[in-house]
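Provenance and format

Records in this collection were gathered into a single text stream. Each protein contributes a sequence line and a token line. The two records reproduced below are adjacent in the stream.
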Amino acid sequence: MRNKAMRFLVVLAVVTSAVGAWGEPGQSPPVKSGLIYPLVARHGGVMPLPSAAEQPRKSGKAVFDITADAKPGEVNKGLVQVARLLNLYGAAGLKTVDVHIVAVCHGAADKAVLNDAAYFARFKIADNPNQPLIRDLKKAGVELFVCGQSLHELGFKAEEVVEEVLVADAAMLVLVNKQKDGYAYIPAP
């Protein structure tokens, strides 16, 4: 009986600590040991690897093609990837002005850029969990776009998009134009 009671207490302690670390649904998972967030807090943590063969260089240019869906209440992984690239630059001692990043959402990723009212109307979740990250990315100088064509296709309106995100005529045009301007194409999950 004593062993069963001890096992129960151990399981209870593990469950309690996991719930405490994760908090409410939609919050970021616990921070892994050793990860740092030098330019974007809470998202896109990186492990500093100063001896790695390739390191961030000043004047990098990247355009992220974000198409992946996220469950309602979860942060879009493509936006987290954008934060990760910024944090890689920060881990190398560089600043947000040392890299030029563009992110364009289209298709299923469009719901990540909806304002709180539109997000609630569709998913019955009071706050779009992507908004804090979107604000942080915008403050870091990231140009954020959403595809006007896929907004229309999905039945979203331009006025339902958060103010930090610009509505482009089409995601394809952002990708073509930015690559023509020397931006590296990065498909995001």
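Adjacent record:
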Amino acid sequence: MTGKRDVNIPPHLMPLVHEHMILHVQRGPGALLFPAAAGGHMAPSSLYAVYHPARDKAGRHDLRFHDLRHTGAVLAAATGATLAELMARLGHSTVSAAMRYQHAAADRDKVIAAALSDLAAGTVTPISAGGKRSRRSATAR
């Protein structure tokens, strides 16, 4: 179905998700992660009743809810995610939509250059098909 996809949650957030599920989510495969107080899907007004005070308390009165998606996409781009990976994660079907989040990648040129030096020196291995990179000690070469 359009608009639905599996997206991995960063592992460091999983303890918070697990705690939230224990405290606020009913059991069962159809349970909603953020249900309305009376059950079912949460209305936008219910979301904003919590979101607006939270952003105001953080001193970010200008932050729109959709800006959180943008931030997540920019951070994903900053990890070095490819355009195809960003498109899959965000559910974009066009390159132009995903390119909106690539501005962060432009600032990574020095990081990329340093990583190329590490690769040439043999202190890191290339990213494998599984997306993992490992550091090698100087004595392991």
